[in-house]
């Protein structure tokens, strides 16, 4: 545990010198402020407007994740072509686990900033009726849960196939996320990781808009959460096993 904490601190220190921290924290903040400025002048449809921001945040995350995981890979590649990461500890998997935890910490920070700024802005700047604080907490958790697998997948793809694949898939993932909010996604969203965050947010928002409709779909929502948690755990284990045997020479970049 001590070794892992040191690795996390070292990762944060290295990322401090890059634009990754600024991108991960400031982009969601800028998005929140942009929506608030729009809502200040737009016709008022309170809960639908608030729900639209959460959906937009969920749709934006795959692009952000693809870019950030590519940047993490690039930092390690520049540090001796991954050799520092592979030889730093006896347990080769620990540096990879450290990368995932570091990225998830950054996601938590980004979500807290984005949701916090939006919540305060809706009440104090736009002066509209707002979701209860419990709903914000629920949205935070479902966005976090829905993105865990994406961080793992994109980190593996970055190390194995290079930056371009991670960034390209992130762009495609955001398009899929938006598409899965339509009727097309009703049947397939639970088995497509790029749809989870937006769909989860949609269900949480529905609970505020129409409790009766939410109750009809609650089992579907809960099944999706369970699938996301279990699948993310399985992918995490498989990715750790993969990285334990990974040779940096096998990277395509």
UniProtKB/TrEMBL annotation:
Alphabetic keyword roster: Membrane, Transmembrane, Transmembrane helix
Protein name as annotated: Multidrug ABC transporter permease
TM regions (residue ranges): 20-39, 51-75, 96-118, 133-153, 165-185, 221-243
Organism: Anaeromicropila herbilytica
Highest taxon, organism lineage: Bacteria
Keyword Transmembrane set for record: yes
Pfam families, sorted: ABC2_membrane_4
């Amino acid at each position: 545990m001590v070794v892992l904490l040191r690795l996390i601190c070292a990762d944060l220190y290295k990322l401090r010198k890059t634009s990754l921290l600024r991108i991960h924290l400031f982009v969601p903040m800028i998005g929140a402020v942009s929506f608030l400025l729009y809502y200040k002048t737009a016709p008022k449809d309170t809960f639908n407007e608030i729900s639209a921001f959460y959906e937009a945040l969920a749709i934006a995350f795959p692009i952000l994740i693809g870019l950030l995981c590519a940047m993490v890979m690039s930092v390690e590649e520049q540090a001796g072509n991954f050799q520092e990461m592979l030889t730093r500890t006896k347990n080769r998997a620990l540096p990879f686990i450290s990368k995932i935890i570091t990225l998830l910490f950054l996601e938590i920070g980004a979500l807290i900033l984005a949701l916090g700024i939006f919540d305060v802005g809706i009440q104090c700047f736009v002066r509209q009726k707002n979701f209860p604080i419990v709903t914000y907490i629920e949205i935070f958790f479902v966005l976090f849960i829905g993105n865990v697998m994406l961080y793992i997948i994109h980190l593996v793809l970055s190390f194995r196939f290079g930056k371009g694949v991670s960034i390209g898939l992130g762009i495609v993932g955001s398009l899929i996320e938006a598409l899965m909010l339509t009727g097309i996604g009703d049947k397939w969203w639970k088995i497509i990781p790029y749809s989870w965050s937006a769909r989860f947010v949609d269900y949480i928002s529905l609970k505020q808009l129409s409790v009766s409709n939410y109750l009809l779909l609650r089992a579907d929502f809960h099944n999706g959460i369970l699938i996301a948690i279990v699948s993310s755990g399985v992918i995490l284990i498989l990715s750790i096993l993969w990285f334990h045997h990974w040779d940096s020479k096998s990277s395509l970049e």
